[in-house]
Design goal:
Layout: H1 2-23, E1 31-34, E2 40-41, H2 45-63, H3 65-69, E3 74-77, E4 87-91, H4 93-104, H5 111-130, H6 157-162, E5 165-169, E6 174-181, E7 186-195, E8 198-207
Parallel strand pairs: 1-5
Antiparallel strand pairs: 1-2, 3-4, 5-6, 6-7, 7-8
């Protein structure tokens, strides 16, 4: 009788141990770390900090789309009031500055990132001057530049949590986080920089899915 009870107790403890292992946030391999030659390394709290930075920025961005899109950074186009001539597309830099300021409020981005983001509008304005147009979507501004898609971002949240994140640690101050979001069909590469003991996003790229 005692032997049966011992076996039952052992089985219960074993099952609980397995359940705990399955639900552990660090044991499910949602974060994988490699060095510059792709040798897998042990993950730690710093790696989680980097992945949380990427996740939190994406969530912040989606939640603040309305605030960011309210700025009329690109003006002109064929949709005008009655009895008015359509204007060719042009960049409203006053609105761009407001947009950049709103992005900066996130606290996730380097000054270099924000500088490059503004440069996109400078380049776009040059393009509009060389290639006047007012019909169709404005060239270079017809998709979301952070998610590289024209699809709605409303259903991205589950993908953010379920995706696997690959960290490539370049050195103590630079790192790359790669991941794939099925809903957009895009592979992403976030380049991170450590400034004053804190990680920031320095660049967002898309990569073709292998």
């Amino acid at each position: 009788m005692k032997r049966k009870i011992s076996v039952i107790l052992f089985s219960i403890l074993f099952l609980q141990s397995c359940q705990n292992k399955e639900t552990s946030p660090l044991d499910n391999k949602s974060i994988i770390k490699v060095d510059s030659i792709h040798k897998e390394l042990q993950t730690n709290s710093v790696d989680k900090e980097q992945v949380d930075l990427v996740k939190n920025f994406m969530k912040w961005y989606i939640k603040n789309l309305d605030a960011l899109y309210k700025f009329n950074t690109i003006e002109g186009g064929s949709y005008v009031e009655e009895n008015k001539e359509p204007q060719n597309y042009f960049v409203n830099f006053s609105e761009v500055d407001k947009y950049i300021t709103e992005l900066k409020k996130s606290g996730f981005l380097t000054d270099n990132f924000l500088k490059n983001e503004k440069q996109i509008f400078v380049d776009g304005d040059e393009y509009f001057k060389k290639n006047p147009e007012n019909d169709g979507p404005p060239y270079g501004f017809d998709y979301d530049r952070f998610f590289f898609t024209q699809e709605s971002l409303e259903d991205v949240f589950p993908n953010i949590e379920e995706s696997k994140y690959l960290i490539t640690q370049k050195d103590d101050f630079t790192s790359e986080v790669r991941f794939y979001l099925p809903i957009s069909g895009v592979n992403y590469k976030y380049s991170l920089k450590k400034i004053n003991a804190k990680w920031f996003i320095d660049k967002i790229d898309s990569e073709q899915r292998p």
